[in-house]
Amino acid sequence: MSTEYRLYDVDDSELYRNQSKEDKKKIQLEIIEMAKQRGIKPTARYFKTYPSTVRGIIKRYEKNDK
Q1: Rounded Cα gap, residues 58 and 28, in angstroms
Q2: Which of 6, 12, 32, 51 is packed most tightly, with the most Cβ within 10 A?
Q3: Is 18 within a domain?
């Protein structure tokens, strides 16, 4: 018996992986700005993802920004 666990009950059209490259960049910048204002966990909840994903996006942005 296998149980599938999902973080959130999200429609496939809302998922990050189904977005165009331009939309992904826009979403990433929104994630970074919101994380600076509200914090990582509230941002992750808003975008229906994991906090580690938000941290990774921030880390990549800071690495490429320097």
Answers
A1: 8
A2: 32
A3: no
Q: Quote the pLDDT of residue 56.
A: 93
Q: Give residue 52's domain range.
A: 39-66
H-assigned helices in the chain:
21-38, 40-46, 51-65
The reply to whether 63 falls in a domain is yes
With tokens 């996006």, the residue in question is: 57
For the CA atoms of the chain, what is the radius of gyration? Answer: 13
Locus of tokens 């994380």: 35
Distances (CA, A) of 28 to 4, 5, 20: 28, 25, 12
